[in-house]
Amino acid sequence: MTGLLEEIKALAQLREAQGGKWDNIKPEYAARMRAQNRFHTGLDIARYTANIMREDMAAYDADTANYTQSLGCWHGFIGQQKMISIKKHFGTTKRSYLYLSGWMVAALRSEFGPLPDQSMHEKTSVANLIEELYTFLKQADSWELNHLFRALDDAREAGDRSKEQELISKIDNHETHIVPIIADIDAGFGNAEATYLLAKKFIEAGACCIQLENQVSDEKQCGHQDGKVTVPHEDFIAKINAVRYAFLELGVENGVIVARTDSLGAGLTQKIAVTNEPGDLGDQYNSFLDGDEVTSASDINNGDVVIKQNGKLVKPKRLASGLYQFKPGTGEDRVILDCITSLQNGADLLWIETEKPHVGQIAAMVNRIREVCPDAKLVYNNSPSFNWTLNFRQQVFDAWEKEGKDVSAYQRDKLMGVEYDNTELGQLADEWTRNFQRDSAREAGIFHHLITLPTYHTAALSTDNLAKDYFGDEGMLAYVKKVQREEIRQGIATVKHQDMAGSNIGDDHKEFFHGDAALKAGGKDNTMNQFG
């Protein structure tokens, strides 16, 4: 990136070449505006963030302590405030991403109103949210640089050359709030062509990473609900190909595909796979189908389907819905086959949807996958659908019981109770929870940890607390004490909400455009001045 002073010099030469027609244009103002708008298109963002992800994946391969994280965000403002917070507290956005959850789009962003996670929302609403998130992240860059530019003007007015040079260095080395988004395309919203067309919309909006799941598109269910139906590998591979072609067509060669398998909790398939010879991919898929051996023609009824399975004729069990049933207990083996097949056919990362957060369970599957694909690594859903407190307390209970430790003071099925919060078991379970991401990154191949819909829950919780107290006895004190006062004391930028929304940026632009005639909003009568 060109430094501020070099940019000013180049723009000054450009202005001079206009023979006086651009004399009203100040090169420094134009240079500032360029710095505040580093990314001109979504494809610029997709290419930039794809490279970040590839670098992060390589860093993780070298040292598993370099795992990455994200939180699901359902609005541009939420994503913006998350990244501003990360920069404020940690000084960098490195290894911090955004997750775009199809669940939250369905629940919060559909024109139909709140919907379950069943791919019923408008397919373009996800691409629209990607664009919105990046619009707000770009505005965070503009907002932060605007404060640096104003500080630079103050330093120059005070004649403080040292401060001026310090600020120019900060401007030249400014770290953007633009980070990778892992975008949920569900099961592709239709056939492979539909998946390709939608993937292009995602990428054009800025997505460098697309997550695709192996469920049937028109039977899609949330990964943590019952009734999931998977597709044969050939169907899923076609959609992986469609996403890769979309990346390549748009010049995002480093685009990342996350192949998600729901097979661990899916007991049904929509159709029998095509197979040409024993042991091929279709035959392996069909080997998991539950069925009854056929010994004579009388075993076959009207409408029955018969396949050859392990050298025998078998009548697969078909439900009234027309769906076929897998053999009980085959979920993990199907997961392993799904993951190996996806990696061998163009996927970059895996997502295994599990029913609980258990390092040992995840590691056991990943170790089997790595016997064939040594560099396999996961994106893992640290899901709010898990009862984390109960899960980890029960894991500690089970570990103690296995060790022979006395657990008579605890009731396993009631460990959620507040009375266990300060017990030895409760505190150890919290420690296991605190270390879950570190431990599973090291032991279970998890490159990226995300929480799918945390900000859905935080919005509900904070709103409930404010409403309860504001409409109760505390009245205005509820907002002042628990919101505004905390914003001030914790340095939350939104306390100056006019500035956060772009008022100061607009004022500066007015000065650029109108000069001394600019009518600004930030004068002495602006109440934001009360916040210093």
TrEMBL record:
This protein's record includes keyword DNA repair: no
Pfam families: ICL (PF00463)
Binding site for substrate: 101-103, 223-224, 260, 381-385, 452
SUPFAM superfamilies: Phosphoenolpyruvate/pyruvate domain (SSF51621)
Superkingdom, natural source: Bacteria
Cofactor: Mg(2+)
Catalytic residues as annotated in Swiss-Prot or TrEMBL: 222 (proton acceptor)
BP GO terms, sorted: carboxylic acid metabolic process
InterPro entries: ICL/PEPM, Isocitrate_lyase, Pyrv/PenolPyrv_kinase-like_dom, Pyrv_kinase-like_dom_sf
Cofactor binding note from Swiss-Prot or TrEMBL: Can also use Mn(2+) ion.
CDD domains (alphabetical): ICL_PEPM
Substrates-to-products reaction catalysed: D-threo-isocitrate = glyoxylate + succinate
GO molecular function, one term: metal ion binding
Binding positions for Mg(2+) per the UniProt entry: 184
Keywords for the protein's UniProt record, in alphabetical order: Lyase, Magnesium, Metal-binding
Entries under NCBIfam families matching the protein: PRK06498.1 (NF005074)
Name this protein carries in UniProt: Isocitrate lyase
Species per Swiss-Prot/TrEMBL record: Vreelandella arcis
Organism ancestry: Bacteria, Pseudomonadati, Pseudomonadota, Gammaproteobacteria, Oceanospirillales
